[in-house]
Amino acid sequence: MKHFFLFCLLFMVPQYVQAEVYGDECANLIGSCDYYACIDQNRISCGGQGYALGYGKKYCEKFSAIDFTDARTPFGAAVFPGQGNLWRDNVRTCLQQGLESWFANDTAKDCSSLRAFAFNSHPDCYTQEPSFCELTPENVAKIGLTIQLNDFFKAESQEQIRTTSRICVSQLDDRIKDEDRRFVRFQLVEYRKIWVLVARDPALIGRLFGFTPL
């Protein structure tokens, strides 16, 4: 009986500790930029250059400080219906919930795989409702100009721009097909052309913002 209780203790304590670390402690911070510091401190410590602190927390704080409110005409709202502040808040939650699902699975965990998963999750979170593809050009510019130059031209960033642009093309195709208003449809067709070009050459959007590779 003594050995049985010892076995239970040895088995249950690690499970309890793991539940504490991988459960509510960080999960309760979803929606807050503090979430990233929590996972770096309590789950995988990758340092200031790792994804959690060097990208997730950094840009969470940068975007949270921006007001994406638009002053739009009814026509402008018809072409670009996405609400920027809602988009920002939804993306933050989506990205963090995605990381929670990754931590909950039984795959090996290291800094490289964390970064790869996180970047791969970006396009889907960016293009959920309301989609990045529905934001006004003004807000798209605010987003682009917030990204630091040394991050913008990294291969992982360029790939997420390419993937996001392809999703934008697909979403605009659906909107164009369903749009009865001729002038709105014309604007959507013209806007689609931009994303087709960016999908082919992600660095194009950087050049539109006046960026040049380092």
Explained architecture:
- This protein has 214 residues and is mainly α.
- The chain is 72% helix and 0% strand.
- It has twelve helices and no strands.
- It has helices at residues 2-22, 24-27, 34-42, 51-64, 74-79, 84-104, 111-126, 137-146, 149-152, 155-178, 182-200, 203-208.
- The longest helix has 24 residues, at 155-178.
- The radius of gyration is 21 Å and the shape is globular.
- The chain starts with a helix and ends in a 6-residue tail after the last helix.
- The relative contact order is 0.09.
Low-pLDDT stretches are 1-22
Q: What is Rg?
A: 21 Å
With helices defined by DSSP (H or I, 4 residues minimum), what is the helix count? 12
The count of strands amounts to 0
Cα-to-Cα separation, first versus last residue: 68 Å
Main sheet specs: none
Helix content: over 70%
How confident overall, as mean pLDDT? 88
**Beta-sheet strand percentage?**
under 5%
- How would the global form be characterised? globular
Pairing-aware structural class of the strands and helices?
Answer: mainly alpha
> What sequence of helices (H) and strands (E) makes up the elements?
HHHHHHHHHHHH
Structure summarized in a few sentences:
By secondary structure, this protein is an all-alpha fold.
Main traits of this protein?
214 residues; disordered N terminus; single chain; mainly alpha; globular; 12 helices; 72% helix
